[in-house]
Amino acid sequence: MSLPRRTSRRRAWTALALPAVLCVLAACSADPATGGSADAAAPARETTPTPTGPPGTLFDDFDYTGADDPSLAANGWEIRTGGGGPGVRDSWSADGAAFPSDPAAQGGRVLRLRSTTDGTAQGTTQTEVQTTGGNFLNGTYAARVHLSDRPTSGRNGDHVVQTFFPISSSDSSEKYSELDFEYLPNGGWGTPGPRLDNVSWYRADPPDRVHKTQKRRLGGWHTMVITATDAKVVYSLDGEELFTSSGKYVAREQMDIHFSNWLIDLPFTGGPRTWDMKVDWVYYKADEAVTPAEVQETVDGFHGEGTAYVNTVPKT
Q1: Before 194, cis peptide (omega within 30)?
Q2: ω before 206 within 30° of 0 (cis)?
Q3: β-strands 256-263, 240-246 pairing
Q4: Are residues 73 and 13 in contact, defined by beta-carbon separation less than 8 angstroms?
Q5: What pLDDT digit, counting tens, does each position of 71-129 carry?
Q6: Cα–Cα distance between 42 and 125 in angstroms, integer?
Q7: How far apart are the first and last CA of the chain?
Q8: Which DSSP helix (H) or strand (E) runs through 284?
Q9: pTM for the structure as a whole
């Protein structure tokens, strides 16, 4: 169960995202060869206005050519490159974000978050991708996520944390809100893995939270769903309810959606290791508690229509 982050999560856009926006304004095209995609030959898509769709809905299939695709920033995503924690401090890098093809993805591509380490702080990079604007509060949050039990390359044993969570923009907010899925294949903070933690927060500092741990191995694809109302928060995995929080442990202010792949500490040296986390799609429905089955039906409908992106969530 993670410790609070000591620095604000509201960060400036990355050096990749800001030029991408300027590129849109100048009507230029991104160079896909620098985007880290496994399909570098694919042409960059043109940025289009926010599409119409069901009201209060976000859906993104992550159909981008790379981290410098202008559509990524235009659709409200940023890649973290700032300092702070959690994990190995000041090691956040845009290099780990890519959008390769994946035959297991419903839309054909995934958001891949790659973190690497050689057991030293200087040789470590962590990856986090988030929305911007803080437009999400009560409703249903869902994502199809691939978790890793072993590194893609190198020796196993790192205390890696693979996460999907909506969160307040500032740790110091009086109405701080955070709702977590956190998978630790090798454990951490002195406890063994594998384990999945669901955590609902009331305050970041000093920590005030409730949680439940599932001790199970979860390598592979899973659909994570969080339904949040004024009365309770319900966490589900592949249609199975895991944990419910209530009382003061509910969302109290607008949040952003984050995906993060990071390392708690550096337990050993001895060669490079690469850890991958993948996201097939993300979905949000404002002010409605949507069942996991209904989430999947809606997502299937978007894919069937060839819809890669919808955002009709009102701006705050």
Answers
A1: yes
A2: yes
A3: unpaired
A4: yes
A5: 999 999 999 998 999 999 999 999 999 999 999 999 899 999 999 999 999 999 999 99
A6: 27
A7: 30
A8: strand 273-286
A9: 0.86
